Amino acid sequence: MSQKLQAPRGTRDFYPDEMRLRRWLFDHFEEVARRYGFEQIDAPIVEHEELFTRKAGEEIVEQLYHFELHDRRLALRPEMTPSLARMVLARSGSLRMPLRWFSLPQCWRYERMTRGRKREHYQWNMDIWGEPDVTAEAELIAAACDLLDRVAIPRGDVKIRINNRKLLEQTLAQSVLRERPERFAPLCVVIDKIDKIGPDAVLELLTDPGGEVALPPEDGRFVVDWLGLRDLGDALSSGPAHSSGGAELSRLFELLDAYGIADRVVFDASVVRGLAYYTGVVFEAFDTAGELRAICGGGRYDNLLETLGGRHTPAVGFGLGDVVIGELLADRNLLPDCTRELDALVFPFGETERRAAVGVATALRKQGLAVDLVLNEARLKRVLSDADHNGARRVYLLGPDELARGEVLVRDLQSGEQHTEPLAEPDGEPPHN
Amino acid sequence: MSQKLQAPRGTRDFYPDEMRLRRWLFDHFEEVARRYGFEQIDAPIVEHEELFTRKAGEEIVEQLYHFELHDRRLALRPEMTPSLARMVLARSGSLRMPLRWFSLPQCWRYERMTRGRKREHYQWNMDIWGEPDVTAEAELIAAACDLLDRVAIPRGDVKIRINNRKLLEQTLAQSVLRERPERFAPLCVVIDKIDKIGPDAVLELLTDPGGEVALPPEDGRFVVDWLGLRDLGDALSSGPAHSSGGAELSRLFELLDAYGIADRVVFDASVVRGLAYYTGVVFEAFDTAGELRAICGGGRYDNLLETLGGRHTPAVGFGLGDVVIGELLADRNLLPDCTRELDALVFPFGETERRAAVGVATALRKQGLAVDLVLNEARLKRVLSDADHNGARRVYLLGPDELARGEVLVRDLQSGEQHTEPLAEPDGEPPHN
Asked: What domains can you pick out in chain B, each with its CATH number?
């Protein structure tokens, strides 16, 4: 088959079966967002490339779907946050903070293709703007847990790792980065790879004399040891005294206890997330079996609006992709049974009955029913088989006898019961308006 | 403001207000599709460029958002039909015809910017595959009329012009195109401009000796005269005897009468639609005031699957864009009042009450309510003003007195009435799982 006849590699077609699953998942995204008082927004999938490349060194820039058109450098969004920030900036005078906004953007990244990887995915984004307190992080993490519950992932199969870049930064500022604080951002980019490449390879990258971080070996070792911490108490006692990053984490864990989700979150000093704009708390949901990529990732990005030339505006958010959670549900056999539903199939035996059949279908549709109308001459056996295949509840049969009596025969496909109903619009008196 | 901080020209940001309107419109699209038994599908917004450029000479190709990435020529979809055909082709062995599929794709065209023009729009696509009879056209046109009714456009403000390319082709095959039938497709591209440029300019293009059609002047005049026909009887009597195209139109108008929409459709010999793949009935909805572009356009494209190398499979569909119908509704002051809705705002007076407030919000959300929780210390006056601004129905107030009594004060913002409710989770007994 010619290349043009296939969807580009790493992209998905959604046939009705796949679309019903997507709708099921999106409905849950929207319902959780509604319960948490979030309003939906959207932005164009194409933006000026510069919006996404304002900071170098991120993997995301190398993976951009970018192009030039009529002298403009454009790109498909790899993530929603820059567009969101642009929107907040454009109306910063009139928007009433705090904002609770969610979106369901499709995002594109040109990644190397391996099993289960896609180049596009839909991402449920939830963001709170204008709130500096970690109460915002707590709301977001609680919402993410609610989503996991709604799609019936067993409690315990997914946990959320939490860290605070500030705690790491404040710790390193007193030690290995005291003379070189500017290396913190590239250091985070390296650390973010730890799940993929392991601590030894991270140590190698951190201490590579030709790299951007270029730590002496003992300093690299200090960092990697720190990343191994999994107990917040240990981190607080070995970190700097009075670290605001540490205090935020303590408070956040207390709040999460108030939400009843203390058992679903863990401290993890190795979580930094890959994006350069994060400034504080960062978190990610992962499957405890350790088989998948992060299910959801987010954090605080208080400086992003300033980076774009706006006023300091605290913000925090997360993104949860449809592909990874779909894999998790499929692996656990938790995908719901979303079959097609049809209330009625209307079948005129021949052309003589077509006009009356149109009247029956129209009347049923006016009542709000989902109605298929057989559009050509067909054999009853085939029609009943189609009706069954399409999940129809009832078939409305209209033959010459029914038409002569001004009736339609209604068969319930589950019970097999039959009854007749009068034709609302007798043939010969079409509804002229 | 720097360019990167603006959405690309001709694209839209959807802030919550605009997004609620979009949702309102999409909900109507989906509801009509459901009632007509259509299943939703989707395809990637990026396809191989070749899928869209398989035929030259169409305006749509010049307006393509196309680009090259890692040696692949890609493009943003300007319309949905080619992707749809690709999907049908890929599963042609297993799909059970007829198919009733709908989609809500965003489509991109790089058009010259004038007032009200956009470079992207969302398009409600409804297509029936596998049905050769005009019963399929009738279902689709009835569905489009139902949509117009649902969004409350006054009957009569929008009509649907119907024509059949076959009738035109059969007429011209016996006259001006007898020696040159291959010029029919480019002729349609020219004719499609008649609304924009008028009959004189169309005549000029048709008879331009350097153009693709290059008719002698008297033949061009014959075509333009034909295009002026608005009565199907006239067309049938001046067209060829036994034209199958004419017979299809007669039957279609009869069927539309059975749907009760005979008053909403007119024959118009000038309608051909711009896309090269149409083969039979074509139609478009237009505002009778004549102020806007076509609201909806569609037709039969029985040969498209063969063009892509598949088996002959009859198909017919339409697209209805969100931008034009939005303009029509705005012009007529028919846009609905979609304000934010919030069931409850929960307000802890201070940090002491936060834990209990989280419990209240969580309990209300579990009941399915849309709940905003005040995330920081705020003054009551400001909170009440925010609640009002955000459309909240009730405010849950939690001060030290309420907490001491194990209660929360509930104020109904419409009636002003107040009552207290017990706190479900007394503070000190957080729900540990």
From this structure: 3-331 (3.30.930.10), 342-422 (3.40.50.800)
